[in-house]
């Protein structure tokens, strides 16, 4: 009985911490104006985060590439509309955002 209660408590804690992670990173995306051009599930000016997650799933080095794109911007991968540079996003913030984006599949 005690082992079952502990297992349930751990599972519930994991679910709440995962939700907190997602909410915290979405708040960061909003604070850094990422949501001006991107949405989680729908294309806006740029691709949805779900599209990005699917495109880069399983690709070695994808997270590092996307961290660089978040900070420096880019053009050509999703068409000719450029992604503007985001110099106000720190490398640590970009890593958090990219981890969240890649987990949105």
Q: Can you describe this structure?
A:
There is one protein chain. The protein has 105 residues and is an all-alpha fold. The chain has helices spanning 2-31, 49-56, 62-72, 91-102. Helix 1 packs across helix 4. The radius of gyration is 16 Å and the shape is globular.
List keywords for this structure.
mainly alpha, disordered N terminus, Cytochrome Bc1 Complex, Chain D, domain 2, single chain, 105 residues
Task: Write a compact overview of the structure shown.
With 105 residues, this protein is mostly helical. It is 58% helix and 0% strand.
Shape: globular
CATH topology: Cytochrome Bc1 Complex, Chain D, domain 2
In round numbers, the mean pLDDT is 84
* Overall radius of gyration: 16 Å
CATH class: Mainly Alpha
What is the number of E strands? 0
Q: How large a portion of the residues is in β-strands, by DSSP E?
A: under 5%
Number of helices: 4
Question: What is the H/E order?
Answer: HHHH
Can you summarize the main beta sheet?
none
Give the name of the CATH architecture: Orthogonal Bundle
- SS content category: mainly alpha
Report helical residue fraction: 55-70%
Structurally, the number of domains stands at 1
Low-confidence stretches: 2-21
How would you name the CATH homologous superfamily? Answer: Cytochrome c-like domain
Measured distance between first and last alpha carbons: 36 Å
How do the strands and helices of this protein lay out in sequence?
Blueprint (H helix, E strand, L loop, with lengths): L1 H30 L17 H8 L5 H11 L18 H12 L3
Helix pairs in contact: 1-4, 3-4
């Amino acid at each position: 009985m005690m082992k079952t209660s502990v297992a349930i408590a751990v599972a519930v804690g994991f679910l709440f911490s995962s939700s907190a992670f997602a909410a915290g990173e979405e708040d960061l995306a909003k604070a850094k104006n990422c949501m001006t051009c991107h949405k989680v599930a729908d294309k806006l000016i740029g691709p949805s985060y779900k599209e990005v997650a699917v495109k880069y799933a399983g690709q070695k080095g994808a997270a590092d590439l996307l961290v660089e794109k978040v900070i420096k911007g880019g053009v050509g991968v999703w068409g000719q509309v450029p992604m503007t540079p985001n110099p106000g996003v720190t490398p640590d913030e970009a890593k958090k955002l990219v981890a969240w984006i890649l987990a949105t599949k």
